[in-house]
Write a structure and sequence with these properties.
350 residues, alpha/beta, Rossmann fold, 7-stranded parallel β-sheet, 3-stranded mixed β-sheet, 11 helices, 14 strands, binds UDP-4-deoxy-4-formamido-beta-L-arabinopyranose
Length: 350
């Protein structure tokens, strides 16, 4: 049993990863500010994990930009931190354009504080939540990890900056074990429907937006452009089931623990592209609901296509996605239909 600190563990990807690690028998300390997440997610994780999992989960509310919050988290591990998975951060592209300094403070400043606290506490194993957004407008599809890092928005710049900081650290102190995981488009939910994506306010991303239209929270979807150079004219992305993504984090930890110190950089995607219209149709089939939509102008910063080449993650981790778009929609609907208002729904108050 390892002891793992998970920053942002109450969030969408964090909560699903906590469940996978608890089911693998590990002990977790979660540090979360709950600014963009809800602690109810972790109560649900414990219910899903069952048994005596509650004895292996400690939740600490705090902002990792405050050294005192990090000190409390490391103290809760009584001097033994076998790894950190760093999810905590802000991730809304449009918000980052309007509030760049907030993104640099939270995403980069917070990461700097975390790394200093890790060094002070003798922990040198880190899985970092990065993003395909660091590629900006990729020249070649599918995208390999060797593609140029050319972010096009402040959010992407902060992810690239933390990646750079980690590379510099791994060069200067060769005992660090680091995995930089570049997520493509995480979607769906645990099949139980008891945890899932819980965006605060109107969703920025396609999947939660479609889901909220299907459940009746939002009247209609606006499709950002139907004149892209794609088969049906709508944008193509690489959607990855959040449970596949969570399992990929456990696989990365096990490689870092079992191999020599190294800096891993891996795309976590399916390698399969789906258009906006394909997602709409798949979600209608899964939910039995109609998703009304209109066509709006293209969104600034969008690309026609973004699809991963996932072969390096398969080679290095022995991991690949196992769940298809239909499953993403069925599981996403299981969550949304039982929690129309997310964790603020009555149903979510245990
Ligand atoms: C997907 C497709 C849109 C909303 C972003 C971040 C990325 C990652 C995932 C954090 C595109 C279209 C969307 C809508 C639409 N997040 N769309 N109507 O932009 O690929 O990636 O989220 O790491 O970093 O950049 O995801 O879901 O916003 O868009 O037509 O209301 O859906 O044009 O083609 P994106 P998305």
């Amino acid at each position: 049993m390892a002891q793992v600190l998970i920053t942002g563990g109450a969030g969408f990807i964090g909560s699903h990863t906590c469940l996978v690690l608890l089911q693998a028998g590990h002990r977790l300390v979660v540090l979360d500010s709950f600014v963009t997440s809800n602690p109810a997610s972790l109560r649900r994780v414990l219910e899903l994990a069952g048994g005596v999992a509650s004895e292996r989960l400690t939740v600490i509310e705090g902002d990792l930009r405050q050294p005192s919050s990090l000190d409390r988290a490391f103290s809760a591990m009584a001097g033994r931190c076998d790894a950190v998975i760093h999810f905590a951060g802000l991730k809304a592209v449009a918000q980052s354009v309007h509030q760049p300094l907030l993104y640099w403070d939270v995403n980069v400043g917070g990461s700097t504080q975390l790394l200093s606290a890790m060094a002070r506490n003798g922990c040198h194993t880190l899985v970092f939540s990065s993003s395909a957004t660091v590629y900006g407008f990729p020249e070649t599809i599918p995208i390999q990890e060797t593609a140029p890092v050319l972010p096009i928005n402040p959010y992407g710049h902060t992810k690239a900056a933390v990646e750079r900081m980690l590379a510099d650290l791994a060069t200067s102190e060769t005992h660090w074990r680091i995995a930089r995981l570049r997520y493509f488009n995480p979607v769906g939910a645990h099949p139980s429907g008891q945890i899932g994506e819980n965006p605060l306010g109107p969703p920025d991303n396609l999947f939660p937006y479609v889901s909220q239209v299907a459940v009746g929270r939002i009247a209609r979807l606006q499709i950002y452009g139907d004149d892209w150079p794609t088969a049906d004219g709508t944008g193509i992305r690489d959607y990855i089931h959040v449970m596949d993504l969570a399992e990929g984090h456990l696989a990365a930890l096990e490689v870092l623990w079992n191999e020599q110190p190294q800096l891993l950089t891996l795309n976590l995607g399916s390698g399969i592209g789906h258009s906006v219209l394909e997602v709409v149709r798949a979600f209608e089939a899964a939910s039995g609901r109609t998703v009304p939509y209109g066509v709006a102008p293209r969104r600034a910063g969008d690309a026609a296509r973004s699809v991963a080449d996932p072969s390096e993650a398969e080679r290095r981790l022995g991991w690949r996605t196992r769940r298809d778009l239909e499953t993403m929609c069925l599981d996403g609907w299981a969550w949304q239909s039982s929690h129309p208002d997310g964790f603020s729904s009555q149903a979510s108050n245990p």
